[in-house]
Design brief:
Elements lengths: L2 H7 L6 H12 L6 H7 L6 H13 L3 E7 L2 E6 L1 H4 L4 E6 L5 E8 L17 E4 L2 H8 L1
Pfam family, one: FUR
InterPro entries: FUR, Fur_C, WH-like_DNA-bd_sf, WH_DNA-bd_sf
Cofactor: Zn(2+)
């Protein structure tokens, strides 16, 4: 899906910064941090423009935040954009990548009476297949 189509679907103004952020995230096969996105972004945007664009995309649920720990946050396209079901994310302790595990659905938890869930996040930490293969060689 193209950035232009995504922005049009959400009735958001098309800006080169917004389109660039979406393009960088779409092209990556893993979740990226703000710095990783900014480094790959074509064009020289000031900090304010970048963060306003970033915040707007997050508010409209075009991108979503994956919190690994209190010092590492990554971003990926939201499920509402990708049309994927809720899924787990995998964080590799070796290479620090975060990947969407589209084939690992998030289970529905039975909550006590009076509680209702809004969303459930599952983050699995371990060693990815690439790092595991490198260790075995």
């Amino acid at each position: 899906m193209k950035a232009v189509d995504i922005l049009n679907r959400y009735n958001l103004k098309r800006t080169s910064c917004r389109e660039g952020i979406i393009d960088v995230i779409t092209a990556a096969n893993q979740a990226l941090s703000e710095n990783e996105i900014r480094e790959q972004l074509v064009g020289n945007y000031d900090r304010t423009t970048f963060y306003r664009s970033f915040k707007t995309l997050e508010e409209y649920k075009i991108i979503h935040k994956i919190i690994v720990d209190n010092q590492l946050v990554k971003y990926a396209l939201d499920n509402t954009v990708t049309q994927k079901d809720e899924h787990a994310h995998f964080y590799c302790n070796e290479c620090n990548t975060v990947k969407c595990m589209n084939d690992v659905p998030v289970q529905k938890y039975q909550l006590p009476d009076g509680y209702s869930d809004v969303e459930t996040e599952v983050l699995i930490k371990g060693i990815c297949s690439n790092c595991k293969n490198q260790k075995n060689n």
